[in-house]
Amino acid sequence: MVKVSVVVPVYNVEKYLAKCLQSLIGQTLKDIEIVVVNDGSADGSQKIADEFKERYPEIIKCVVKENGGLGSARNAGLERASGEYIAFIDSDDYVKADMLERLYDSAKKHDSDVAIGGIIYVDENGDVLREEIFSYGKECFNADETRDVLLSSIGVCNKIYRADFLRKIGAKFRVQKWYEDFDFIIKVLLSAQRISVVEDAFYYYLQRQGSIMNNSNLIRNLEILEALSETLKFCKERNLLEKYYDEIEFLALLHAYSAASVRIINADADKKDKLLALEEIKSYMDKEFKDFKNNKYIGSHLSRNKKIVMRLLDLKLYTLIGLMFKAKRVLAR
User: Among residues 120, 122, 148, 150, which one has the least CA distance to residue 135?
Assistant: First the structure.
């Protein structure tokens, strides 16, 4: 059994894939496998994967499947992974050479189900935009002891997970959905007996300049509500909702009411459709989290800019929000 299996979902990323795979081949932890899952790419991604497979046959596994989305690709890689621990690395990102070794050593030292590292946000030129290093006052804990882990580290790619633990809790990503990692990571963090953290940043998260959202995928932002419903269902089934209600409510405020709403406002889509989508998010929040505007974490965990956006959303000043973000994009050029 290898120490870490790295699952790399691939879809039309020929521009980025070689850099991602090279960063994994160069890991200081040598006892690893890399499971490259081609999720129906139509570009030259498979050729690049095949070239790496030919050069590193003892490390690279290639899986080719019909397009099913990011969650489906991650699930396919998870099924084929044979490692003691699992990592999920997105194919347009890359990592420092010692990431897997540092996280694996932390996981083994603390016998943890999950080990967390920090994130380095970079642009297309490789310039660092900001770093996010997670610190919780101790190296090992669980979500009940350290609630902040639920609020500050819900991405899936800056971590490794004990494979037996994922299988035991039946952890799978929802398929053909956006926000498929949201309920996955919440379930994982709430189920983990031990979570360890390395106070260093290893994961280079590329901030790509994506295409402007239009009517055809505007509605997909509402899939955050499905992710929230799955999270609420999980918590209710395990009698965890009362214990973690404030944390789940804050995540709903941050990712649905704020972030998804802003994406909808900034979409190049029909105004009527945008207003309907915004109203659906607001109705969901009012139904499931009636007092979310008074969540106890707003003062300590919401930035000044996010507080301004939240206030403007409350006042339905959507045009002003759009102008704010347009100005931000112009200044960033």
Answer: 148
